[in-house]
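Input (structure):
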């Protein structure tokens, strides 16, 4: 009696799959990992406190090793804070599935140069990025209205004119 047993099994499997969090939910959870207080304090002074899951560990390491020469600015930290943040970043790096799927760290260790980022944003025309209200792709909050809550869902996007 094969059939009558397989069918309930398939139904059970379908229910389990439906109940498990989907890809987008997993990525939302990854983006919303609670921020280390020192990270929130030190790394949100000039731009969004980028979710650690959006870059691989190697990128965070290089960025943190070069804070005195950080994209044309000095973002230095004291040794103790640096140490704390290195540990925290290493533990939370690359958790976004899109990041894990990219073969290597992005150019300049920029989220905005990652293959997944370029793909997700391919519908944004080149001229849009340079609008005065946006200026830089790194300015996530210009379009993602809930970026400060590390929420990047489509429904929360408003592209400024
Ligand atoms: C003094 C200002 C300042 C501080 C403080 C600062 N940054 Fe930056 N950061 C910048 C600038 C400027 C850029 C380049 C932005 C652009 O290209 O529009 C940048 C870019 C970045 C990028 C790449 C963004 C992209 O294009 O994907 C990352 C990642 C980053 N910063 C992480 C950090 C971290 C981590 C800290 C805290 C240790 C930090 N920043 C603190 C000024 C700062
Ligand atoms: C010019 C406006 C703009 C800026 C600036 C911008 N984005 Fe986006 N983002 C978009 C648009 C448009 C989409 C595509 C939405 C879609 O089709 O699902 C998108 C999609 C995404 C997605 C995928 C969303 C999903 O649910 O699949 C993520 C994650 C994301 N952006 C993160 C970022 C981050 C992080 C930054 C800053 C480093 C950033 N974006 C800067 C407009 C922008």
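Output (sequence):
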């Amino acid at each position: 009696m094969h059939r009558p047993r397989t069918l309930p099994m398939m139904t059970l499997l379908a229910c389990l799959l439906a109940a498990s969090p989907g890809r987008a939910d997993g990525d939302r959870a990854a983006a919303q990992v609670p921020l280390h207080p020192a990270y929130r304090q030190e790394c949100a002074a000039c731009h969004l406190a980028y979710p650690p899951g959006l870059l691989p560990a190697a990128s965070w390491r290089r960025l943190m090793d070069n804070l005195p020469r950080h994209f044309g600015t000095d973002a230095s930290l004291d040794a103790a804070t640096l140490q704390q943040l290195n540990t925290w970043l290493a533990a939370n790096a690359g958790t976004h599935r899109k990041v894990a799927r990219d073969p290597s760290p992005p150019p300049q260790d920029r989220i905005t140069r990652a293959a997944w980022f370029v793909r997700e944003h391919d519908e944004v025309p080149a001229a849009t990025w340079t609008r005065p209200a946006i200026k830089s792709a790194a300015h996530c909050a210009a379009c993602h209205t809930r970026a400060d809550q590390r929420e990047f869902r489509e429904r929360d996007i408003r592209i400024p004119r």
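Notes: The helical segments are 3-19, 23-31, 37-42, 57-65, 79-92, 97-101, 115-120, 126-129. The longest helix spans residues 3-19.
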